[in-house]
Amino acid sequence: MSELLRSTTDAPTGGWRTATVRKVARRTERTVVVRLDIADRVPHMPGQHYVVRLTADDGYTASRSYSVASSPSDPLVELCVERLEDGEVSSYLADVVEVGDELEVRGPIGGWFAWDGVAPTLAIGGGTGVVPLISMLRHARELEHPDLVCLVAAARTAADLPYSDEAMGDCNLVALSREDTPSRPAGRLTSADLAPHVAGRELFFVCGSALFAEAVSRLLVELGVTTTAIRVERFGPTS
Amino acid sequence: MATRGFIGRKRSGDPRLPPGQYDAGDDWPVLTAEVTPNLRPEQWSMSVDGLVETPTTWSWEEAHALPQSEFHGDIHCVTTWSKLGVTFGGVSVDELLTVAGPRPGATHVLATSTTGYTTNLPLADVTGGKAWVVWTFGGQPLSSGHGGPVRLLVPHLYFWKSAKWVTRLTLLDHDQRGFWEVNGYHDRGDPWLEQRYTGD
Ligand SMILES: Cc1cc2nc3c(=O)[nH]c(=O)nc-3n(C[C@H](O)[C@H](O)[C@H](O)COP(=O)(O)OP(=O)(O)OC[C@H]3O[C@@H](n4cnc5c(N)ncnc54)[C@H](O)[C@@H]3O)c2cc1C
């Protein structure tokens, strides 16, 4: 049997807090960035997430998890939410939330999908799956070691990819399945896309829909990456 | 605290749904944190060890030779989806423990998967017809994404306790936190008490 899966150090964990919305901005046609001021918050590690809990007047609640896009040094906590048709929480965050609103949040949460700021990392995200990876990228840049995190961001088109501006960089790759880019013809992410970025990396973070995460983690295993170095976050059923 | 302008979905009012859960219908989200192993039944075995009289390992064939049983009911994930009216088939954990024989002083169990995933449970939550080691879902072989060929099933607790690709149950005289529990998830995880995170 393989070794036990061990989470990164002692990742911080925070309890329920009240967050005040400071900024709401569209990032792509279907995604919205919400920046939260959380008094007395526990600082997060890049990759961790928060739970947002909405409560109706009759006491009914709906909670969903959202990854943090901001770096730990950012005074605000930034979430980036994709609006799903009939999505109970995402459509509320995309359509209803305004600056000044208060939201109940719990976090940071998670210690496996969390980057310690030290290990050379390959981070691969599909669509909104890039959100926790952007936090890693931002943190690496602030540490003045941008080379520590190499980001591969995949989406159908550039317009479907939040933070596509930030995802462009030295070792970073944007792979679009339906659009040519100067560096790459349209097509799904392949093992040839990933191969040049694997050497020297100790941790591999894969985030996106269940289908995307499954496909990419298989590519990594085929490229010889040991499974215990691969940390996966699946955002749920929808792709 | 009510959230301004939040109405939410039509309340299902289904008494099978614990607080804060929604009915995922035909969806069955996959939220595993590790690479899905490509595990063949003949590579798999199930061990019960730790504080037991007779540490025992069963092969796929041997596990299937034990008396089989089914679970009909509901499952609840901490990420707030539930699946109602599902059927799993396999062997009751009671059958395994009858062979291995828990020693006095055993109070908890640590379940371990082939991937190295772990989760902790009170012994009382896997005895008395409350837990299974299962290999079918709805009468079909359990798919690898959902833990196939074999997963633990502890349906009265949040589903991260139902370790996918389970291979070992270790009986202990203390509670030893598993993969999610060390990072703030609840040690027990009763959905009816909304025990999602440490301290709930
Ligand atoms: C650790 C983690 C981190 C995450 N990070 C992010 C992130 O950074 N950004 C992000 O956008 N998402 C993220 N997610 C996904 C997020 O938590 C939600 O699952 C997502 O926003 C959808 O929630 P929702 O309430 O909008 O949709 P839901 O109401 O849950 O519905 C999801 C889909 O199912 C359908 N559906 C389900 N039930 C019903 C029903 N009863 N009636 C009608 N339709 C139904 C809806 O049409 C919808 O398309 C993350 C998930 C996890 C687990």
What does this structure look like?
- The complex is a heterodimer of chains A (239) and B (200).
- Chain A has helices at 88-95, 131-142, 164-167, 191-194, 210-222, and strands at 16-26, 31-38, 49-55, 61-67, 77-82, 102-109, 121-126, 149-155, 173-176, 203-208, 230-234.
- Chain A is built from five helices and eleven strands.
- A six-stranded antiparallel β-sheet of chain A has the order 4-3-6-1-2-5, with helices on one face. Chain A has a five-stranded parallel β-sheet with strand order 9-8-7-10-11, sandwiched between helices.
- The two termini of chain A are 32 Å apart.
- Chain A has two domains: 3-109, Translation factors (Elongation Factor Tu (Ef-tu), domain 3, Beta Barrel); 121-234, Rossmann fold (3-Layer(aba) Sandwich), CATH 3.40.50.80.
- Chain B is mainly β and 200 residues long.
- Chain B is built from two helices and eleven strands.
- In chain B, strands 1, 4, 5, 8, 9 and 10 form a six-stranded mixed β-sheet that branches. Chain B has a five-stranded mixed β-sheet with strand order 3-2-11-6-7.
- In chain B, strand 2 and strand 3 (56-59) form a beta hairpin.
- Chain B starts with 21 loop residues before the first strand and ends in a 28-residue tail after the last strand.
- The chains are: A alpha/beta (239), B mainly beta (200).
- At the A-B interface, strand 4, strand 6, helix 5 and strand 11 of A face loops of B.
- The structure holds flavin-adenine dinucleotide.
